[in-house]
Amino acid sequence: MKKIGVTGATGLLGTNVILKLLQNGYSVTALVRKKSSWLGEENENLKLVEADLSSDISALFTDVDCIIHIAAETRQNLFNYDEYRKVNYEIVVNLFTHAELMRVKTFLFVSTANTIGFGNTAFLGSENAPQLYPFTHSFYAQSKLEAEDYLLNNRKNTEVVIVNPTFMIGAYDSKPSSGKIIFWAWKKKVIFYPKGGKNFVHAEDAANGIVTAIEKGRNGEKYLLANENLSYQEFFKKINRITNQNPVMIAIPNRFLSFLGFIGDGLRNLKIKTNLSTSNMKALQISNYYSNRKSVQDLNLQYQSTDKAIEDTVRYFIENPVNNKKTSFQ
């Protein structure tokens, strides 16, 4: 039985990854801040270890065959690059250095699609496309790209496989994180939507891609875990149909989003935390579209529909109403 070490174990993706690993017969050591935050059931092949990623955690992974590093700083309201770099780069370097010394066979790094150049309906973004604005101005995306470059340029004893998920929705989004987009439209009489779009993928499929990449992923390669490219209008219409609602839908002018970004930049200069920024508002205006061809061909992945992803997410929130109160979109 192969032993796998996982960081970021209790988030949306981490929970789905561990469930997939256990279903496929792996033994898992999962690092968590608090054992009580684990949402899955107890399993004899799952060991939960409370640990701080900023400390020396190498001893916890001394006998693993693969490390899956999911933990990351994803908040959009931090003020400077160093706040992201500390978690998304320095911890990666530290963990990978110990993986190399311990001769761990594979280091699987979960990055983001935003380190890769996006496309549009006519030409989809793929793994070899260089990063594009506005993500070249995103501290989060930049810190992930810096970590990718380090791993690819310093691999010796340990193989490196990088996966780049697009926008994930699905069950076990306990914060919620990306699932907030469901609350943007669900149970609303009026929906204001940006004119751009993005690629959506079921979190369960992204998890399956990660588990499959342990065996089939090639050393030094990146894999977009992506599915359906949709405008925000199309995505919200799916939510309307699935949840049997018929709200008024109003497009947000790009100029207004740009104005909000300008206001956000000013607030940040005053050290006032906000998710608003020029780059974040620009991201809502573009068609942030990607291809999943490589993951389908190399990893033999099959993706579920976005409808299924929405259904599973909504069902999870209905069955876990306490989580709904944690979002500002209520």
CATH class category label of the domain at 3-179 and 199-228 and 290-306: Alpha Beta
Tally of alpha and pi helices: 11
- Contiguous runs where pLDDT drops below 50 for at least 5 residues: 323-330
Shape category: globular
Class inferred from helices and paired strands? alpha/beta
Radius of gyration, in Å, reads 19 Å
Query: How much helix, percentage-wise, in residues?
Result: 25-40%
Run of helices and strands: EHEEEHEHEEHEEHEEHEHHEHHH
Please state the second-level CATH architecture of the domain at 3-179 and 199-228 and 290-306: 3-Layer(aba) Sandwich
Sheet with the most strands?
7 strands, parallel
Number of strands: 13
Question: What secondary-structure arrangement, pairings included, does this model have?
Answer:
Layout lengths: L2 E5 L4 H12 L3 E6 L13 E5 L15 E4 L11 H21 L4 E5 L28 H16 L4 E7 L1 E3 L10 H6 L4 E4 L3 E6 H14 L4 E5 L2 E4 H11 L5 E4 L2 H16 L8 H6 L3 E2 L4 H7 L6 H14 L1 H4 L6
Parallel strand pairs: 1-2, 1-4, 2-3, 4-5, 5-6, 6-10, 7-9, 8-12, 9-13
Antiparallel strand pairs: 9-11
